[in-house]
Here is the input.
Amino acid sequence: MPADERFAVRRDRARASVPRPLAAAPAPSGVPLPDGPALRGRLATGARRPEKPRSSGRGGSGSRTPRSGRGGGPRRTYERARRAWDRPLTAYYVILGSSLLITVLGLVMVYSASMIKALDISKPATYFFGKQFLAAVIGGALMLLAARMPVKLHRALAYPILMVTVFLMVLVQVPGIGMSVNGNQNWLYLGGPFQLQPSEFGKLALILWGADLLARKQDKRLLTQWKHMLVPLVPVAFMLLGLIMLGGDMGTAIILTAILFGLLWLAGAPTRLFAGVLGAAAAIAFLLIRTSPNRMSRLACMGVSEPDPEGGCWQAAHGIYALASGGWFGSGLGASVEKWGQLPEPHTDFIFAITGEELGLAGTLSVLALFAALGYAGIRVAGRTEDPFVRFAAGGVTTWITAQAVINIGAVLGLLPIAGVPLPLFSYGGSALLPTMFAVGLMIAFAREDPAAKAALAMRKPGVRWKTMRRRVKKRPSGER
Here is the structure.
């Protein structure tokens, strides 16, 4: 037999002796199978090659999942916004951001609204702005201090703040020491151009002391009895109201009453008890308004569109004129007409009217949105905490800022009588700005005390983040590979 024939016979025998693969999977179309020893080993053992899911083209019913990063429509946008709002640090950022924006915008509007008033009294155009800026710097330091203080220290300061405030409010009524401004005997002279209104600090004192009192009684399960709920909270609040009303400042008394009702509501006062206290306060307020011609005239100016021939309701009417002339986007920053002597108190009680005239409806709605965000964040802090002191204090501060903003803006719009209260964080007045910024720092501290917020803030520290990002490898015995 020739050599080539013998070689062909041996080749055929060798091929016949190799076992065939068991149910080898066919290669996907268009994808060549690699050759080599590894492939021959897999085919010899009969292992199947994992198949990848194939999409059925555009519009088909393949198993590909849609990407969540793009598209989705309004529902997906709403879900993203809801998840972002539910993050642990949302309340912290909203309180800090909205309060700072209100303060900065207030500084701008104080400068714009007070220039003509300062020149009219032979002062530099930046006279009121300089004083407000100094108060904002001191208030910022107080806000930072309050935000860094632990809750226990806030509770420890409740009684000292209350006693100092009561002492100063009594000192105001001493002849020769207290000062009268616009008919209200509620000021202390500090020297130079600086004055102090202790009643503004009475709001903060009532909140801290009342929150500490109610928290201790709740820990002892005493708030189920009406006498423990009312005493001594209501008598101390009435004492503060009496000292304020001795000076004739009914606007501050209304805010203090709103804070008292907010604390009672958070403490779970029964409807009958709450209605009884509310009815008594309304009767006292009606008596005080009825016996004062000045307060009756303010009540009669609600909803007026023009002043009467004798000059009554002048401020209320020109506040409406300022808002009406602003239009959608205002006449421009600094271009107000009403601040040229037509509108009294353009940089204090009626600064919202100048804002509407110069920044228009867009500016006023922005201010309202910032106050709404601040109020909602305060409610969230009060609702998510398990500490009763934090709940009462955060609810009291939220009631204070929200009620005062509503009363001020309602008076400018002609929906409420003019109460003479400033717009929180916005109007001119250092005595009002300092305790308000401290109260905002109080809410920031409460937002930071949330366990989830604490964990999120701890993760943001560089050292902690580096430790958590490192992969932890268990040590193996020596000699083991």
Observations:
- Residues 351-384 form the longest helix (34 residues).
- Strands lie at 178-181, 184-191, 194-196.
- The first strand starts at residue 178 and ends at 181.
- Residues 27-34, 36-47, 55-66, 464-476 have pLDDT under 50 and may be disordered.
